[in-house]
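Re: protoporphyrin IX containing FE structure - here you go.
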Amino acid sequence: MLAMPRSTSSPAAEDDPLLSLDRELASDAFFDDPYPVYARFREESPVHWSEHLNAWFLTRYDDVRAVLLDPERFLNAGMVARLLEPLPEAERVRFLPFRQHYEEGGLVHSDPPPHTRLRALVVKAFTPRIVMALPPFVQGVVDRLIDAVEGEGQMDVIADLARPLPAIVSAELLGVRAEDRERFAGWAADITTFAGTAKFGVDVVERAQRSVLAAEDYLRERLAERRRTPRDDLLSALVAAEEHGEALSERELLGTCTTLVVASAETTTNLIGNGLQALLVNPDQLQRLREDASLFETAIEEMLRYDAMTQSVRRVAAVDARIGAHEIRAGQLVYLMLGAANRDPAHFPDPERLDLARPRAENRHLAFGQGIHFCLGAPLARLEAQIAFDTLLRRLPGLRPASDRPAWKRNLTQRGLGALPVRFERA
Ligand code: HEM
């Protein structure tokens, strides 16, 4: 069946169950708890043309995975231009530098063959050795952040731990001053707001563009320093990376470094925030983890599955393509709902239950994506989360929620809490 845009104003439309389901995507209830809505989409309209998003909305595991594994027909390049299309032409021109940032240097925003070359160069610099050297540093940062609140008997886990941690680790990784972490977190927040807002105003793009350009200016200076005096850090490794006589251009370096800062910030913050929230509302599982440290590995995977921080990624159809009974037209935007796929009962036994011991073989979640764009930072995110949870549970006995109204952000791409107040026994 070919999806036809429907009129939302006709009386018939009022009775159309799929249109009323579609409207849920703009509701506060959806952002508070998207999972009942996803369950209905998976059942009633798994390949759904969304009026609200002006895009396809895919919620079944098999469909989402199939598109992720089909980079020839479903593209990442051109995404920012596509997202800016609803703006008037005169406004769009102002955002050319923003588009260029992604089109000329982006890892996530490119397709093969440029993506293959770019990814090989970045992988060459971002070696397992770099991540393997980090645990003592990450542990030291987490301990210092907990030292600051331990005597208080209460903290906001987002502001006091989950937000600063990835910003400090990114700064260390790239080899820049830790004092600059506030700026990193601010840039990441502005860019994430743009990426996760379905109907944005010019102000949202303006803020995102300002942050991209500020990040570029900042990183340009740091890259120039590394060219003059190489150090033992990721920036220097990226400058030096070479494959078959090719190196990263200045634009690619700026795009890659900005991606590393942005991709690691909100996501890791939300892994810690969403994961802890899931434990707090499932105290039996929290207790289980306290009693059995051997569960940490499967526990982190279950947190990634259960409440995926990156709820969606997007692709643009390169050609007309059929998914199930539906014809996706070339140029149409497709939302791949990773959060919905991760709760698909066709792939996960009892998917609505948080089970920290869910065997790895049964938990092939899509939280880090799949295929050629699979998250490059997955080992680092797992490491930071493991150390953060281990330390929280060890050092803060009696950890419990201090609010029964979690403040979920209204973002379609990154699911996370604005704040997570907790109480514990004072040290
Ligand atoms: C819990 C934390 C994280 C989650 C849930 C996450 C999720 C994802 C997802 C879903 C993708 C695929 C995007 C797509 O298919 O379009 C991705 C790509 C990527 N991630 Fe992550 N990420 C996390 C942490 C990190 C960290 C810590 C870093 C860097 C240090 C990072 C760097 C990247 C990069 C560079 C890509 C692009 C890879 C490519 O296009 O080839 N991520 N991430």
